Amino acid sequence: MSADAHATLTLHSGIALGLSAIIAGAINSVAGGGSFLTFPMLMFCSVTPKIANATNTVALWFGSLASFGAYRDHLGGQKRALITLLTTSLIGGLVGALLLLKTTDATFKLLLPWLMLTATLIFIFGRQLTTLMRRMVHLDINQPQHIGPFVIGCVLQLIIAVYGGFFGGGIGILMLALLTLLGYVEIHTMNGLKTVLASAINGIAVVVFIFSGLVAWPQAIVMIAGSIIGGYYGAVIAQRISPQIIRYIVMTVGIGMTAYFFVKQWLGPN
Questions:
Q1: Domain range enclosing 202
Q2: Is there a contact between 121 and 174 (Cβ–Cβ < 8 Å)?
Q3: What's the number of CA atoms in the CB half-sphere (13 Å) around residue 14?
Q4: Which of 93, 97, 123, 251 could form a disulfide with 208 if both were Cys (CB 3.0 to 4.6 A apart)?
Q5: Could you report the per-residue pLDDT of 196-207, keeping only the tens digit for each?
Q6: Distances from the Cα of 223 to the Cαs of 15, 47, 62, in angstroms?
């Protein structure tokens, strides 16, 4: 399948996509949820939902790589966790991406409002989920003698990764909750691990989408540039300021976009 035929990149759509990607890259490094902005923006620029999903994944993946550079100093001593969770992330991301390829455009359009709702609820109630995890027994995936945490961590991360490869909204929050369950408390270490794992999930999906012709490249290139700029500088800022205001903005956008897609589905194609 050729990836667009779907939409022509105009000056106005290029500016809109570039700015949205800069903001999304910064939002992802501060609070997560940048896809609530860029994914609908692609659709507003006449990219079909399935292509928009794949293109958005490709574009924001580069931004997450830029964010990783700001967190690399916080990943010392995490070799066991990285190897374990990276492996399951790659497997799950591949499975999720292949599921997307097998999903028809009509089916994806039906799923879209529910996927947006799921991602929005994960974002809104992510802190409560993390608190719940913290109240549970802390596991430690870095202790080689503990097989239980190893298995639990792999299974949960695999589920998150499959969802991430297919759609991906809210996976950062889900991984923060999982890392809390595994005993992590230092937020910059958790953000560093989350960024690496998200990069792995989306990275393997990116490979699948590219080789399957599922990417609208003119739009993707503009957004890649924007997400790199926003991803790096947003990650630097994230370690200096509170993300609460940005969280409220993202919640509002997520709720608004979810409502929009539900209403659009109920009203039909016209």
A1: 11-267
A2: no
A3: 9
A4: 97
A5: 888 899 999 999
A6: 10, 14, 9
